[in-house]
Design brief:
By secondary structure, the protein is mainly alpha-helical. It has a domain of 107 residues. The chain is 61% helix and 2% strand. The chain has 16 helices and four strands. GO terms for molecular function: membrane insertase activity. It holds the Pfam family 60KD_IMP.
Amino acid sequence: MLDFIYWPVSWIMRMWYKFFELVGLGSQSAITWVLSVVFLVFTLRVILYWPAVKQIRTTRQMQELQPQIKALQKKYKNDRQRMAVEMQKLQKEHGFNPLLGCLPMLAQAPVFIGLFHVLRSFNRTGGIGNVVNVCEDIPDPAQCASFNASLANYAFTPEDVNNFLHANIFGVPLSSYITQAEASFAGFFGFVDYPSRWQIAAVAVPLMVIAAIATHLNAKASVARQSPDAATQPQAKIMNKLAVYVFPLGVLVSGSFLPVAILIYWVSNNAWTVVQQHYVFKKITKEEEAKKERLEQVRADRAPKPGARPAQGKKGRAKGSAAVIDGTVVSDDDAGAAVGEAGSAEDDTTQSGTDAGGGVPQQAAKKKPGPGQKPNAQKGQQGKNRAGAQNRSGQGQKRHPQGQRPGGKGPQNKSGGGKKKRR
């Protein structure tokens, strides 16, 4: 049913097994088989490295979007459908894809299932989880073990199966587990002595404890890297507690049902996760710091010098130049518009003060009073200038008769002064 998973997993594991056998570690050595399991994990994690990095970036991006998400939730708290639409719009604008955060975990699950099945299939002599009990009609343990070793296990040949059954750690076969049924021990007849449960526990329990501690440390490190806003979310608090305390406890409980080789897989996988997270988070932190420094440098370069007026929009910048604004590389036009906005506003205000009298701003047209001249003299001079301009502009208008004022009825009597003399 799941052969499309079992065959690739067994093929990769057998490839590493043959490699370590070729370098002289021995075909029946437990070290050869342990390393083949470990490097199966490493192969998977190398394939999933870039998706894992994308997952970390997605998680950090989600934390940065928390204030906007809170605002949308508050705004559309009574309209779930509109909230979902706005959330999708926000995620699309920022290139956020929630599925990428689940990809590494989803990809590791089939490999874990496939490895569990392949390891259990090395011994098909009965017990919980075995595909078939090949010794159901063979009462003789020797014949049962011989028949079991003659069966291929997906990519592994019968010879490889025979070598795997010989491999053991301190007398404990790699496919054995603490709760293993006694009937399945017949598969090891003639290869190793029947191990007791205490022997199996002596090897399995330390691996279980190491795997649980590594799981706890990985979860704790992930929680510590969360932003304060994300960590205070009710759902985030629940998930953090589950990851830090419940999941490690689950490793201890389920470890008694897992083969020793699976526990080795678990330990090596957690070890890889510790190293990878430390490296990736350190790399991402350096990238973010460098981005902030570049942004600050761009703002400092485009800021007006002390005592200088900000440059207008696009003037004074090299053609085709670009800038980093808020972590994004933008073109010369966009950068000039963003950075020179304040300068453009001031230029527009100054330009509005320019009139047709020569294009000089009003502030520049004002002169200081000369030596010995009163400040009001400037206003008087300006008044004369305006009067002269009016006289010049008034040429060609209708002249009034001599001696007649504008609006008068006629010339005045100079001799009489318009008044009757008394006698």
